[in-house]
Amino acid sequence: MTSRRSPVPAFVIAAAALLQGCIEYVPVQTAAQQPPPPAPPGAPAAAQPSPLERLVGPIALYPDPLLALVLPASTVPSDISAARAYLVQYGDLSRLDSQPWDPSVRALARYPSVIQWLDENQEWTRALGQAFLDSPRDVMDAIQRLRREAVASGALASNFLQQEYSEDGQTGILPGQADGLYVPVYDSDAYFWGGNAEITYSGPYPVGPWLSYWPDWIGFGLWTGGWDYWHGGGTWHPPHVDHRHPPPGMHPWPQPVHPRKPTEAAAGRSQNYGPAPHPMRGATVSAGHSAGASHFAPASHFEGSHASAPASAPASPSSSTSSQDSKNH
């Protein structure tokens, strides 16, 4: 006689399956899921930048002759846009001095990648220009604070690309080459406040009498008129001024005459300057290379330009622009 087995109830099967799953599955917490380790007792909190320091961070390490062009040029952002469109459409550097732009923009147009970078970050550029018009002293003092911190940490030092020097407690930066200028390329947030002092340099770019602006770090202003006072004899040298009278052949920078609305910072209130600009793209060289063995990675400096580029669009200023400037000037 054949015996018949009673069917197993469904709830028993479900319970067994659930028990098996619990035995086989043991959740593992990944590194990404684990909370960050607590800070050691008594560890100092990370320094937080002021809004103004974060605003000037992207240009704080520029060599002084270039920085002295960026500051006044940022006060006329519409001229920067016009210069970028001209460079893309025509690219004729020999006609820059005849363009109806502010003199600082005409000079800065010798460095197309800088013009493009400023134009691509118009919100930041306008905020910088407005802050400089409202209080040159505050802007320049913020730059000096960042430079001093970089020197103290060992991140800012002289090399074949730049000369760092101190005078009257102020930190200056001069080009390291008599006939060339390198533009530092870095993420300012990471460099100054993120513990990553990585920096490369775009260039070399040509130098010439258009570098006719100089920052007065003691008098908190700009001188303009000529470059012989800090460039001559085949080298760069810090200009020695009494900060009350202009150097020979120089005069104070004349601010734009068009009216502007004071910012909150000028009224003594807190100011949010908006997002920091993205780091400038371009051909870069590490400061660790020797002058005769620089390695460049050229990139297009005119992507996303306002005007459509002609068939013979201007080349990267780190390569053919340098030779073209030498011919034109």
A few lines on this structure:
The chain has ten helices and nine strands.
Describe this structure in words.
With 329 residues, the protein is of the alpha+beta class. It has one domain. It is built from 10 helices and 9 strands. The strands form 4 sheets. A 3-stranded antiparallel beta sheet has the order 5-6-9. Strand 5 and strand 6 form a beta hairpin. Helix 4 packs across helix 6 and helix 7 crosses helix 8. The longest helix is centred in the middle third of the chain and has 18 residues. The radius of gyration is 28 Å and the shape is globular. The N and C termini lie far apart (114 Å). The C terminus is likely disordered.
Structural topology:
Blueprint: H1 10-24, H2 51-56, H3 64-73, H4 77-89, H5 103-108, H6 112-120, H7 122-134, H8 136-153, E1 162-167, E2 170-175, E3 181-185, H9 188-193, E4 200-205, E5 213-216, E6 221-224, E7 231-232, E8 235-236, E9 251-252, H10 320-328
Helix pairs in contact: 4-6, 7-8
Keywords for this entry:
329 residues; 3-stranded antiparallel beta sheet; 10 helices; 9 strands; disordered C terminus
